[in-house]
Amino acid sequence: MSVPALYRGLFDDAAVFPPGDLPLRRAVPAHLGHRSAWYADAVGPFLCGPALADELAQLGTGIPVGLVLPGGSSGPTAALSATAALDVVGVEIAAADVAATVGELAATLPAGIAAAVELPRDGAPEKSLDALAGTPYRAKYRTGGLTPAAFPPVAELAAFLVGCAERGVPYKCTAGLHNAVRHTDPETGAEHHGFLNVLLAAAAGSDRRAVEEILAERSGIVLSGAVISLTAPQIASLRGLFTSFGTCSVAEPLADLADLGLLRPPPLEDR
């Protein structure tokens, strides 16, 4: 069975990060299972911090790795040197000064390795996005976390999405997009963005009002209908912007898509 183009490579495996916090001895076999499953085309790289590199290398898996570097790190050069035994396909680096980070990447990042620069949540993404415009690097934005304050309001996330669309800067999201549809967590009160909301908001491009309305939508029926109506050119365009997001559970978003009738798993005997 072929995974629809809208979802191919959409789910980066962040199982070892909060709130999943899966130990490598469990996360790596699970990732290998994802890569051999019927939905393998939906799965992106295995995300990992430098601190786990030695243990991951000892497992000898050869899986594609996205190396996640925290803010204040010494940069990609030292991290890539320390992880030479891994199949690193990309780096993600948090930046207080995006322009400086772009300059460092341009000077030191080896050819063939992608990069995403995490923008600070300062409410004014324009300057940071200007620094990324015209470069080969993606923007990265934090869409959630362990506290309600870690989830950006609709207006803040819309400003980032519209800014990327206006400049042609592709982006990925990280944290918080556990489900397909926007909802309020009954335990924490956090306002979770839905990954379908973000996908459809990407299709709205630079129309700020439309982007905000889509991000605020809470009806799975409405969002499913909008997804079904997307044309192939629209899907190609929006996925050129919204490239992927990190999720600590690959299975959870797939289950949401199946529940909404947007993804049909094959019969058990065919898996």
Structure in words:
The protein is an alpha/beta fold. It has one domain: TIM Barrel, CATH 3.20.20. Helices cover 38% and strands 17% of the residues. The chain is built from eleven helices and ten strands. The chain has helices at residues 24-35, 53-59, 76-82, 98-108, 126-132, 154-167, 195-203, 208-216, 220-228, 232-241, 251-259, and strands at residues 11-13, 43-48, 64-69, 87-94, 114-118, 138-142, 171-174, 183-184, 191-192, 242-247. An eight-stranded parallel barrel has the order 1-2-3-4-5-6-7-10, surrounded by six helices. Strands 8-9 form a two-stranded antiparallel sheet. Helix 7 packs antiparallel against helix 8. The longest helix is centred in the middle third of the chain and has 14 residues, at 154-167. The mean pLDDT is 94.
Give a brief rundown of this model:
With 271 residues, the chain is an alpha/beta fold.
Q: Give the number of helices.
A: 11
Major sheet: size, sense and barrel closure?
Answer: 8 strands, parallel, barrel
Shape: globular
Low-confidence stretches: none
> Strand order across the biggest sheet?
1-2-3-4-5-6-7-10
How many angstroms does the end-to-end distance come to? 9 Å
Structural class: alpha/beta
State the name of the first-level CATH class. Answer: Alpha Beta
Q: Which fold name fills CATH's third level, the topology?
A: TIM Barrel
CATH architecture: Alpha-Beta Barrel
Instruction: Tell me the β content.
Output: 15-25%
Average pLDDT level: 94
| Helix and strand run | EHEHEHEHEHEHEEEHHHHEH
Total tally of structural domains: 1
What Rg is obtained from the alpha carbons, in whole angstroms? 18 Å
Q: How many β-strand runs? A: 10
Q: What is the helix content?
A: 25-40%
